[in-house]
Structures are given as C-alpha cells and as structure tokens.
Amino acid sequence: MILLGAVLTQILHLALMFVLAPVVVGLIRLIKARLLGRQGPPVLQVWRDLLRLLRKQPVLAENASFVFTAAPVAGLAAIAAAAALVPSFALGMVTASLSDLIVLAGLLALARCTLALAAMDVGTSFGGIGASREMTFAVFAEPALLMVFFTFALLAGSTNLDLIAELLREGTLGVRVSLGLALLATTAVAIAETGRIPVDNPASHLELTMVHEAMILEYSGRHLALIEFAAALKLLLWLTLIAALFFPFGAAAPGAGPLAWAGGIAAWIAKLLVLAGALAWLETSLAKMRIFRVPEYLAVALLLGVLAAVFLFVSTGFV
Amino acid sequence: MAFAIGPHVKGLGFPIHAVTAAICGCGALIALGCLLAGLSPATLALPFGLPGVGMTLGIDTLSAFFLLLLFTSATACAVYSLHPHGTEQARTLPFFPPFIGAMALTLIAADGWSLVFGFELMSLASWAMVLARPDEAESRDAALLYLGMAAFGAACLIPMIGLLAPAAGDLRFAAMRAAAPGGWRATAILALVLLGAGSKAGLVPLHVWLPLAHPAAPSHVSALMSGAMTKVALYVIIRVVFDLCGPAQPMWWAVPLLAAGAASAVLGALRANTEPDTKSVLAASTIEHVGFIAIGLGIALAARAADLSSLAALALGGALLHALNHGVFKTLLFLGAGAAQTGAGTRLLSRLGGLIHPMPVTTACVLVGAAALAALPPLSGFASEWLLFQSVLAAPRIGGLGLQVLVTIVAALMALAAGLAAAAAVRLVGVAFLGRPRTPRAAAAEEADRPARIAMIGLAILTLLLGLFPGPVLSLAEPALRRLVSGGMADRAGLLAIAAQDDSAGYAAPGIALLLGLFVAATIWIVRRHAVAGELRGPAWDCGFAAPPAWLPFGDPATQYSGASFSEPLRRTLGASILAAREDVGFVRPGDPAPARLTVQARDPAFTFLFDPLAAAREKLSGFADRMQFLTIRRTLSVMFIALVLFLIIVAWLEAT
To answer: Which one is predicted more confidently, B552 or A28?
Structure first.
C-alpha cells in the first residue's frame, strides 16, 4: 500500500512538474508585464510556443556534430531526473532514497556542462561567450550552494532531501538564524542558476549581454523546444527546492492518502504562486548587473552560506 | 644514453610493449584476484638487496589495491604504444618497463630500503623519459626541475626511513610497526613524508613541476606519471602515516593534509583553466585530484584520532576510490590528448579544434573521461567525490571549533575546485575537440590507430563501470580500511548504493543512471512521435554573420572562442588574486597594419613565495662562497683555525654526552 502510494505520488509529481513548468514561466512573464503596465501574453503562451517549436524542422549548422543534437536530450534528461528527486507536494516518493542534495547538484552540473559543450560545438563566438560565462558563474555558485547543503547536513545529519524535508516539516529543527542566512544564499544561487535578473536576462535581445541565450543561439525547431522546456523545468525545480527546504509546511507525509495529497498540491501551488510573484517583483525592481559583478554577488552568497554553517557551530544547539 | 639507444631499438617497440602489456594485464588480474580472495598479508625475504641484510617484499590489501590501479593504467599505456607514435616513444622504450617495475617494487616493498630504492628508481626512470626531447630547451628545463624535486624527495625520504627504524636498525616494516614512533620523531616523520612523497604526488607548494614535466614526456608516459606515479607517492604517505606510525597520533596531524589538500585542489583546478596546452591542463587537474585525496586522508586521520572509525573509513574509502578512479580516467584523458597530438600534430589548444569530425572515437572516449574529471553523475569521478564530500560534511562531528571552521572552509574550497574542474573539462573538450579547426593540420587530423582506440575504449568502459558500481570496488579495499582505521565500509557499500551512514540513503549510481536513461528514452520517444522528423543543414546562424567565403572553408577560425578567451572571466576574477594574472592589450593606431596583441601573464604563487626566495638565497650563498674562495692567506688560515676549534668543541661535547 505504501509502495503504491509512493509510485502514485511519484507519477503525479512528475506529471505536475512537467505540466506546470512552462505555466510558471508564463505566469512570471504575465506578472512582470502587469507590474510594468503592459497587458502581457496569456499564461499558456509558453506551452503554445513549445508545441509550435516542436512542429518546426530544425536547421543545423553545417559542422554541427552529434554533441549538438544529443545535448538537448541529455540536458533535459538530467534536469528531469533532478526534478524527479525534489519532493513537491508529498514526501516518501519512490525516488526518496535517491534524492541526495549533492546528487542533485551533480545532475544540474551535468545539464549545464552538456549545454556548454553544445554551445562550443559549432564554433561561433557567441556560443563560446555563453559557455565561458555560464561555467564561470557555476564556479562561484557551487561553493555557495554546497555551504547551504552543509548547513542542512549539520542540522539533519544527512544530505538526503526527503529526510531533511521530513525533519523540517515536523518542526524538530526549529527556526534558526542559520536557515535565514541559508535562504538568502539559496535565493542568490537560484537566481544565478536559472539565469534571471540581475544575473542574466531571459528576455534579452542584446547578444553581448547574454549568457544562457547566447549558448542556445544556434538552436531551432524541436531542439530549441527541448532546451526551453528544460530551462522552464529547472526554474520550477529551484522554486520547489526552496519551498521544500525553507517552507516545508503542508506537504503530505509518506504513506498519506489522496486527501493529504490534495492538500499538499494546494499548499505547493500556493507556495509557487508566492515565489513566482516575488521573483517577478524582484526582476522588475532590479537592473541587470555587469558580468564581472556577478562573481562578487555570488561571493556574497558564499559568505552567507559559510556564516550559516559557522552560526551552527557557535550556537549551543550543535554538538 | 637513451638517445644513442633510441634508433636501434625502434623495431623492438612492438614486442617490448606487447610483453609489458601482457605482464601488466596479468598483474592487474592477480591483484584483483588477491583482493577478491581477501588475501592475508604475506612477506617474502630475499637474500639480495642491501648488503648483509637483503630485502623484504610483502603484499597486503593496501598494496594490492594500488597494484591494481598501477597495472590497469600500465596495461592501457602499453597497449596504446603498440603502434609507434613518433621517435620520442622509441627513445623512452628502454625506460618504460623499468619505470613500471620500480612503481610495483615501491608498492610491494616491506622494508624501508626497498621502498626508497623503488621510489628513487621510479624517479630516475621517469626523469629519463621526461628528457625525451633533449634538443628542446623546454624539455631540458622541465627535466632539470623534475630532477631537483626528485633529489629533494630523496633527501626527505631517506632520513624519514632512518627515523622510522627502531633503535636496532632493523628496516623491516614489521619492526617499525612494533616500535611506532612518538613525540618529536613522529612529527619529523610526518613533515618529511609530506615533503618527500608530497612533492612527488604534487601537493602544494611542491606541485610546480607537474604541469611542466608531465606533458614533456611522451603521452603514454605522461599518462602513467599522472595516473599512477602520483598514486604511488600517495601510497607512501598512507603507508607511513596510517600504518607505520601506528594509530596513536594526535588530531592536529590532519591539519597539514587538509590545508595542503584544499590549496592543491583550488590551485590545480584554477591552473587547469589557464594552461595553454592539453597535456598541461590535464597535469594541473592532477594536482586538484591529488588535493581531493589528501583532504580525504586528512579527515580520516582526524576521525581516527577521535575514535570515529566509521567516519574514518568513509573518508579513507573515498580517498582510495578516488585514487583508483582518477588513475583510470586521467590515463584515458592523457591517451586521448596523445592521440590528438599524433593525429593533429600539436597539443596547443590554440592550434586544435573540431577534432570530433575526423576523430569521433577519440572524442567520445575523451568526453567520458572529461565528464568523470568534472565529477558529473553517473561517472566514476562523481562517486568518489560524493564520498569525499560526505566525509567532509560529517567531519564537524569530530568536534573542536577550530577544526569545524577549518572543515567548513575546506568544504567550500572543495566545491570551488569541483566547479573549476567542470569549467576546465568543458574548456578542454570544447576548444580542442569541438568547434571549428584552427589550423589546416587540425582539419586534416587522423583518427587514432587501432591499439590506441582499444586502450581508450577499454578505459572509457572501465570509467563507466567504476561510476556505476562504486560499492563493490570499495568492498575490495575493505580489509585495508579495517586494518588502517579499524572501521569498514562493508555495510554501507552495496552493489546498488553507497551510503555515508548506516541505515541511511546514499548515492545509488545505478538508480540515477536508470532515471537518466528513462528520461532520455522518453524524450526520444516523444520527439519521434510528435515532432517533425529530419533536419536542414545550413551555414551557422551566428547572429546573422555572413557565411564564410570559399577561400576560408572553416570561416575565420580566430573568431571562435579560444582557450585563452574561455578562461578570461576566471583569469580576471580568481586568477588576478591567486595567480597574479595580468593582461596587456596592445592596441595599434588606426591605419597601422600591425596586429593588436593581447599578452597574458600568470605566475604560480609557489614560485613567487617559495622558489624565488629560495633561488635568491642560493644566489646569495654562492656569492658568499665565492668570497671565501678569494680570501687572503691570513684570513684563510684563521677560517681554518676557527673551523678546527669548532670541530674539536663538537667532538668534546659528543664525548661528554
């Protein structure tokens, strides 16, 4: 019975993640447009664009190799695998024992590296710009993220995401200064990783300022659809991760029934709405920063992460 | 000497490498068999060796584990060399089998003399191969620096053995274990082994020779030097610190290992992003991985001192597994770089590019190796780095605020190094193997010959297997872990998953691989069903730049990102502070036909802070000695008189005590 529940929640979780990912991107675009006083496209526009792209024949550069055509699939698979590990509305899914935080970081790195390699494949300068910048940002984002994971590992005694979410949901860890610092660090890393303002502008049309968009300039058709979908899924994954780590209330316990799932889904969607609104508000109120300011910005995130861990050592709560 | 032998032994290349490959393959199988059968430690006393004493050989699980690594790497290197790759390979032929033999001797030595003998033989044989191109100043300089470092290592290791040997002068390991050192002697031994073997392993600050000497040798030798020789040095550290010094050592012993390890990890990974040629990138990345292993050893030492045997086993197991994984994928990458050098005639990133089209097999193998180097799941590098990260994350349990803060910083630096390694891997593959060819020679590259392809494919498959099944590999080292840190990983290293703690979820590599495979299959299925099939080919879009004219068939190769431009953001941020990197842009006036030039300078901090002052001191000392040579007779006599008096005083003092 528990296994059946685990399988059902897993399938439902994946289906919801896949369906909602483009919707969340559309929602953020809509909120941003409204905040800027524009009408904005409908929420489902992203889905329509993706389906349209899927029906278009791609144009490949003459010297594109198998890396170029395989990267969208591999990148999407890595993000989807990571998305399968992050609990959204229910704990104790089938992948609960796999959902390690460091594995999660590894899968995101896998997606990043495949896309960066694909960007270098055709040998255009914009692809190189995007790949170089993306990898540079990751160099600074990874230590900050690991410090956050370090904090949670100290608190929960494990890096298993499902276990941490469970402990947090029960409230046994309490409210701590460290968690506040870790939230700030995670948010900063998430913004950099998903390519949002102030690190990167997803709606940029100026090539020299692009990061993510510069990497995928050569893509078209179904390949582009896969990459855009993976980017949307990655954004939803980060929002869900932040919700699971810092706002753990409302998720259904392992082995709970469909009623608890419904409550969990409602809570999850409410959290997503709040986070998406906050992100849209943040993006409209900030300007994009210069490329060489980004390492400084991420260094601040790293500092916050280190502080979060050190606070645990000096506080009496940690043996 | 090698250069006189070289041309004559050219025809011997195939048989010698074939026999070496066969012997090493058997050696690897025997080592694996020993590990699987769970052999009990055995020693063998030989009547020759040190006059009057003989030599003692022995094998236990730790030796067998490193022998497995050595012979696996050596088999691949020997198979790779079955087909001749240039004259350098013929020149190094007489030294290649002795090099492997010397490493094996170091690993099976059971007395101090054989250990040092094997170690120094290994240094000398590899030095002769670093000097493969004596007509090039770079090669000579690298060999000289390497020889100096090897001599320094010997100067540290020989007194270390003297300190380890108990009063009776018995050099056997068993006698050393029975009388484990303590107090200042133990401290001196730690310092000497870290300097002596650490300089060979490439620990900061004695790492500077690696990016110079490893690439100077022919590729199959570089592969062995990076993949196996650094591990032999790490074996010596583990043997001395964990085994011969006994279990009762203080906790601060972890601090130098952690500090040197973290510094090596960051500095090596950063230099891997700035080096201009494929093989020095790989050599710099070796420094990073040796640093990771040293961090694991440090955590294991601290945990053992605190009687946390389960954590100590996790850290030491991670270190051993990472040594094996790194040995395999670094050998693969060096052989790949060698194949690119043979195929495209250069190892400079600025002259390569687009090798994926003429060399698809080599590129695919290098991709696997680079993904392992970048610690991407589900490959081997990720599995062992996961264990090392887990041990660092659990290390605060050892206690003490100082250690906790140190461990926090080490963890952040490890993550920084992992990020840098990923950037270096993307740079290496992206610039050398992807993109457009930067020279006509690279455009006309040839795929690697059959033996080289076999060696690389074998290593790539091994990298995949090691990544998918880290648990069984860990259990091979189980007896060694039990003996060295009195704790094991057996209950945490299953076939399907490895865990950091008992009864807890961990990293299930097959599960992750299955998940990835499922999503790849599902994506392909959906695309096949719902998307339009086929694709068009056209000139690259490149934001509307015109297609290249007929006389530039690859476009202008200089318009794509080069190795130097890829690392520019890192050079400006981290490089400016750590490597003192400077950029000079030489713009020219409008109308001047001279090209604008960008000059990049970077300097390893070890040169600035250690080797330059040392060189200055040596210069000063030799100037002083010069003055002594031209003293007046009166002064010479008084110097001799003072020396005599001092000598007599010392003799008198020794007599008195």
So the answer is: A28
The answer to whether residue A70 scores a pLDDT higher than 50 is yes
Q: Which residues of A touch B386 (CB under 8 A)?
A: 100, 102-103, 106
What are the structural domain ranges in chain A?
2-314
Q: Report the interhelical angle of B254-274 vs B278-305 (nearest 10°).
A: 160
DSSP assignment, residue B555? B
Q: Could you report the predicted ipTM of this complex, rounded to two decimals?
A: 0.95
Q: Is A250 in contact with A240 (CB distance < 8 Å)?
A: no
Minimal Cα–Cα distance from B351 to chain A, Å?
14
Domain ranges of chain B: 250-499+507-517, 564-587+594-603, 609-656
Closest CA to A163 of A237, A238, A102, A87: A87
Please tell me the number of Cα atoms within 13 Å of B546 on its side-chain side.
4
By the 10 Å C-beta count (0-12 exposed, 13-18 middle, 19+ buried), A121 is classed as buried
Q: Which residues on adjacent β-strands are paired with residue B57?
A: B44, B109
Q: What is the spatial distance between Cα B619 and Cα B606, in angstroms, rounded to a whole number?
A: 18
How far from B621 is each of A96, B188, B369, B580, B637, CA to CA, in Å?
66, 26, 47, 29, 21
The model's confidence at residue A160, banded by pLDDT at 50, 70 and 90, is very high
Any bridge partners for residue B582, and if so which? B601
Name the strand (E) or helix (H) holding A220: none
- Beta-carbon contacts of residue B584 (< 8 Å; ≥ 6 apart): B598, B599, B601
Residue A211 · residue A195 · CB < 8 Å = yes
The Cα of A185 is separated from the nearest Cα of chain B by a number of Å equal to 13
**What was the pLDDT predicted at B503?**
73
What are the pLDDT digits (tens) for B332-375? 999 999 999 999 999 999 999 999 999 999 999 999 999 999 99
pLDDT, tens digit, 9 for 90 and up, residues B117-140: 999 999 999 999 999 888 889 889
Which of A78-87, B129-138, B370-379, B591-600 is predicted least confidently? B591-600
Q: What percentage of chain B exceeds 90 in pLDDT? A: 68
Helix axes B96-108, B13-37, angle to 10 degrees: 20
Q: Which residue has the tokens 């905040």?
A: A35
Distance from the Cα of B542 to chain A's closest Cα (Å) equals: 6
Check residue B1 and give its pLDDT.
Answer: 39
- Chain B residues with CB under 8 Å of A15 CB are none
